Amino acid sequence: MKKYIYIMLFLFFVITSPRVLAETYLIGTNPNNVSLFSSLDAEPVAPSVGVYSTDDREYAEQLLAEGKIAYIEKAASVELFSFEQDPLFMRQWNLQTCGFPKARSYTRGTNDVLVGVIDSGAEPNHPDFGDNILPGYSTAENAANPTDAADTLGHGTAVAGIIGALAYNGEGTAGIADNVRILPVQYTKSGNISTEAPFLAAIEYALNQGCDIINISAGTPAYTASLKRLMDRAYAENVIVVSAVGNSGTGDYNYPAAFNTVVGVGSTDKNNIVTNFSQKNTSVNVCAPGLDITAPISYEYSKLLVTQISSGYGYGNGTSFSCPQVAAAAALARSIKPDLTPDEFLSLISETSTDLGEAGYDISYGYGLLNIEAILNKLNPELSETCVVTHNIKKDGENTVITITNNTAIPAKGKSITAFFSSEDIFADSPKTEYIEISPKNTSDITHITPDCSYAQGFLWSDFDNMKPLLKATQKILCK
Ligand SMILES: [Ca+2]
Ligand SMILES: [Ca+2]
Prior knowledge:
This protein is an alpha/beta fold. The chain has helices at residues 57-65, 93-97, 100-106, 155-164, 196-208, 225-236, 299-305, 319-336, 342-352, 372-379, 423-427, 475-478; strands spanning 4-6, 25-29, 43-46, 51-54, 69-74, 114-119, 137-138, 181-186, 193-195, 213-216, 240-244, 263-268, 286-289, 293-297, 312-316, 389-396, 399-406, 416-422, 447-449, 456-462.
């Protein structure tokens, strides 16, 4: 009998595009030489106070050397203060529901954790994807070559993005675990129904590559001994497999979700009610939001089904999009506890999920709604401790140097560190501030975020191997 694998696909809509800022210098006239200024090649910005602009730094330096201007400064970026810098974050209602905001202050994952995404590949050039999303591999029947895993359907890009789209980068959405690595393994290029062989080969490839977690937002109603063998291998190798339970809304089982070593994920809506399309049976271990889930989508998919764009985001429905939220939670858990087993993760799910529906386990919600914060707290209660970091602000020539020092005993690997300072702290009396120094020095992942205090600037660092965490802490500084 011929076996089929089904992937659930849903329509997306485009809702944003990226932004680019050019570098400009502001120059101020020398009060003794105001009359000279009309001959200079600079744009008036606020001429009443002698402020002009130019993109030509060398030219400005020359003017300064000649005493024609009083100063040069890099034009700052000015932004409208909103809560998040990922513009679509506020659309990601599912993250609020699943305990993500608190969880991300604990960790964004570590890059030694590898998550295999068995799907339709991933968009290779998406602006919200970083180096954390690997080039991928294809086992699809009609793949031009195995190294081309570019997503021609859109499904895999959304799934990978829900796990690992870059957060705090001023672009698109926030992934749940954007510091872990994601390996897209494409088993289909041509449609949402495929034969089983390339699907099995994709799982084999992910296992051979040493994936810690495997996300399978797909499945088949047929039990096959071949798929069972691969799931047994995954279990024996301590790989946590997370799979969608299916979208027919019935009690019918789908595999691999129905194997008892696999974490089966169902869908809820904004009211925490199980969606009508989510399977209701004992394969459901946990549920996560699966209706109106915002995610990156591939260009090709946009061309096929919606409007042509250069970069895209959309929203989709299905247990396919619930599944990666649980896989991301597993990746965060594995970042904190590298030897976490599939059984231990299932136990964590049963102990921490928010019970819904009938009291206790039930076949609509499993153990309940995913709670990432509770999982991480359970694994390491120290994560939720609020620790105070000290900071020192001093002038160094024309720059302000802010040094952050941690005084706690908790190791910081894998944690996020968020520091807030008021604008006055950073810029007062120091117009040429261009850098902030932290100790130990690691500025590779600094991005600005805007805190809930309108006059302040926020910065976020993560993955300090040697630092001790913490901050959540700077409310005192933030809102004085
Ligand atoms: Ca983003
Ligand atoms: Ca229940």
